[in-house]
Automatic annotation (TrEMBL):
UniProt keyword annotation of Ligase present: no
Pfam families the UniProt entry points to: adh_short (PF00106)
The protein's name: SDR family oxidoreductase
Keywords noted in UniProt: Oxidoreductase
Family annotation (Gene3D superfamilies): NAD(P)-binding Rossmann-like Domain
Stated family: Belongs to the short-chain dehydrogenases/reductases (SDR) family.
Domain of life: Bacteria
GO MF term set: oxidoreductase activity
Length: 244
């Protein structure tokens, strides 16, 4: 039986690239995004594969996470991998954050990881196998004065620690839990104008930005490893390694 992976935020950017990579490897992929329209657009780009199951819904809602696993099991038997990719990034000085900013980041970046992970923990522990990958942020490992981003650092930094905690909790059930912490990756989330791109390149000692394939490679490494758990793997051109 082919393995099955759930990818949240699968309609664009990193999530789309991850979904595409698993489909190319013959996996069944269950994709989530907020609307069915965005998922259908993604499916069209992928050639409408029969093993790409579309499950729309707000990932901050526990019912969406439950539906992801129920529909995945009904269609494909079980879930082997969960990629918690859905996320938003709001960078601004601390005094400028609004209550709405906080609610939005907590909903997508915290609840949107907790509820699917909770479902995965129960399902995978019962099967005595599985992988959970959280997509976090390199800046949560090494804050940078050039990018004031207290709330993403607070939430993604907590997710980095939660990754380690859950890895320990689920280790006896043969469930691996890891994180990939990207730096600036070329996705629709980031501005493409020349001046902004030049600034982004100053955020890594390599003077580079990344592409989605860089994150895909890290995700595939982690989910294909049987002896790696509790790891936060930066994919950020060295931006989290220290000062330079």
């Amino acid at each position: 039986m082919n393995q099955t992976v759930i990818v949240t935020g699968a309609s664009s950017g990193i999530g789309f690239a991850v979904a595409e990579a698993y489909l190319q490897r013959g996996y069944n992929v269950v994709g989530n995004a907020r609307t069915i329209e965005r998922l259908k657009q993604a499916s069209d780009k992928l050639g409408n594969p029969v093993n790409f199951l579309l499950v729309p819904g707000d990932i901050a809602q526990p019912g969406t996470a439950k539906a992801l696993f129920e529909r995945a099991v009904a269609a494909f038997g079980k879930v082997d991998i969960l990629i918690n990719n859905a996320g938003i990034f709001i960078a601004k000085p601390v005094a400028d954050y609004t209550e709405q900013d906080l609610d939005d980041l907590l909903n997508t970046n915290l609840k949107g990881v907790f509820f699917p992970s909770q479902q995965a923990a129960v399902h995978m522990s019962a099967n005595k196998s599985g992988h959970i990958i959280n997509i976090t942020a390199g800046i949560a490992m090494q804050p940078n004065v050039k990018v004031p981003a207290l709330l993403p650092v607070l939430i993604k930094g907590g997710l980095n620690q939660a990754t380690r905690a859950l890895a320990i909790e689920l280790a006896a059930s043969n469930v691996k839990v890891n994180a990939v912490a990207p730096g600036i990756i070329a996705t629709p989330m980031h501005s493409q104008d020349d001046a902004t791109q030049a600034f982004y390149r100053t955020l890594a000692p390599t003077g580079q930005t990344g592409v989605t394939q860089d994150v895909v490679n890290a995700v595939l490494y982690l989910t294909e490893s049987n002896f790696t758990t509790g790891t936060i793997l930066p994919v950020d051109g060295g931006g989290s390694a220290g000062t330079w």
